[in-house]
Amino acid sequence: MNKKLPGGPAAVIEIGSSAVRMRVSQLKHGEIEMLDSLEYPVFFGHEVFTTGRISFESLRQLSSILTKFTTALEGYNCKNVRVVSSTVMREAENRSFVIDQLKIHNNLHLEILEYSEEKALICSEIIRLLKEESKIEMKDALIAYVGTGSIGVALYDGKAICTSQNIPIGSLKLHDALGALSRECDDFYPAVEEYLDIILNRVDIPKKDIRSIILTGSDLELVASVCGAEKSGDLYTISAKKMHAAYKEIRMMSHSAIARRYNISEELAEILYTALSIYTGMLRLSDGVQKVICPDIDICDAITRHMLVPGAQKEYIAQTNESAIVSAKRIAAKYNCHGAHSDAISEFACTLFDKFKNLHGLSSDKKIILQLTSILHSCGQYINVRMPNQCSFDLIKDLDIFGLTHEQILLTAFVAGSDEFTMPNVADAGAIPMTEERRLEILKLVAIFRLANALDKSKRRKLRISKIRITNEKLEIKAVASGSALLEKWAFEECAGLFKEVFGLSPELQIKSELLK
User: What is the model's pLDDT at position 2?
Assistant: First the structure.
């Protein structure tokens, strides 16, 4: 949630695959104004994508660049600084060492964004920008960010992101992956197209669901210039026909020929080839799209907004949570999960969470874990009715749910995968770091979820909570029933033990029939 934002300018430093960038901005009359922008070219991406590590030489270069940046910031009296990185540092095996050395030598904390965080931040900025341009059709829009090392793909239904996926390939990584093949033959474009189709065809979005395509990425300006894009404000519009024509022209050309044709360096020519092949590959995900909208934004835009604009962070969290719930419901439908039952226990769980928030001590961001657990907890029954809890855990822990970090996914998986009545074994929490604080947090979530689940044990939405009262020793829940609720009463009593063990309160359920009202 937004705390009071620090005054003065803000700086975002992004450590990318091919450049280290810094942007200094301030808020003036409610609008973000850029004060300065610096960029140094680097080759970290080539190094990480081929060796898996950042070398000592590259680390020294990075430290030197950051020293220059922080010196420049002194002229702006800028104290509000964030340093971020995405794919290049995510995939560096020695990233912990890099973080430590930058803290020691530059006194800067490097945040490595997860795929989901990076994608959610960029998507939120794209949606914000396009909503300002009301003439643009946003319903059923495929949104994709083509980075140097990954592609984030999402489907926006006009209100929320309803599905999303991360594809571990980007313009630079594709170039490095197929570099040997390009040296063996001049016309290797069929192999590139086939390779991309194999990857992009895994995107779980039917063509009929896509009415428009919105693309952006680190190489957008280069692609836009080659395709003869029209620009209005921060938006490029590229004709699909022109994009296909540009790719058809360069796909048979050598990198040196591309460089001469467009008056760019051979290094940029190599990236242009793979970037344009990905952009045209994205067009093949849809039928009949005539133009592509390309917002000229990046991760720095989104982070700067959160640092400077009051309420931006709160709005982002609300938007991301809504999209996560919509995405989870779409996944649950594939596993024949009971939608009405999920809605009922989600409502019960959120009511319990809010009613005694002063006692459970969980942060507000844990409510989304209960909501997602309510939606996904029964998906394991689709796989194996003998071991539904284990199957639910195994399925959920590897899901790609929009905006959620890996830790949030694992928390959801563990709460959903807990056995219904026995004391959970928190040691089975997978890759979550098991501090005592984390163990207690999981137990609290499981205890709340079990009570909520018990209140709709029959999956027929018989109960409606009318009152919740907390005393020193009891949690009293009064509910009105539309029919016999003996099953719910029994399940509630079976789940009460863990709740009392965790919170020190004895849950009591008092049920009154609607007929006696």
Answer: 47
Question: Rounded to an integer, what distance in angstroms lies between the CA atom of residue 107 and that of residue 71?
Answer: 13
In total, the chain counts a number of residues equal to 517
Q: How far apart are CA 513 and CA 481, in angstroms?
A: 5
Place of tokens 């694992």: 410
Q: How many CB atoms lie within 10 A of CB 432?
A: 19
* Last-in-domain residue among 255, 271, 303: 303
Is the model more confident about 173 or about 47? 47
* DSSP β-bridge partners for residue 27: 32
Same domain for 134 and 106: no
Shortest CA distance to 372 belongs to which of 197, 386, 381, 405? 405
Q: CA–CA separation, 16 vs 58, rounded Å?
A: 13
CATH of residue 70's domain is 3.30.420.40
Q: Each residue of 391-415: pLDDT tens digit?
A: 888 899 989 899 999 889 999 999 9
Cα(399)–Cα(404) distance, integer angstroms: 10
Number of domains comprising the chain:
3
Paired tokens of 205? 């979005």
d(CA 272, CA 266): 10
pLDDT tens digits for range 435-486: 788 888 999 999 999 999 999 999 999 999 999 999 888 999 999 999 899 9
Quick one: 346 and 361 in the same domain? yes
How do beta strands 212-217 and 161-167 pair?
unpaired
Verify that 161 and 216 share a domain, yes or no: yes
169 is a domain residue? yes
Q: Write the pLDDT tens digit of every residue in 375-396.
A: 999 998 888 878 888 888 889 9
Rg (CA), the chain: 26
- Whole-number mean pLDDT of the chain? 89
Q: Which of 113, 129, 160 is the last residue of a domain?
A: 113
Residue type, 71: T
Contact 108, 83 (CB under 8 A): yes
Looking at the domain assignment, is residue 310 inside a domain?
no
Give whole-number Cα distances, 61 to 55, 68, 113, 351, in Å: 10, 11, 21, 53
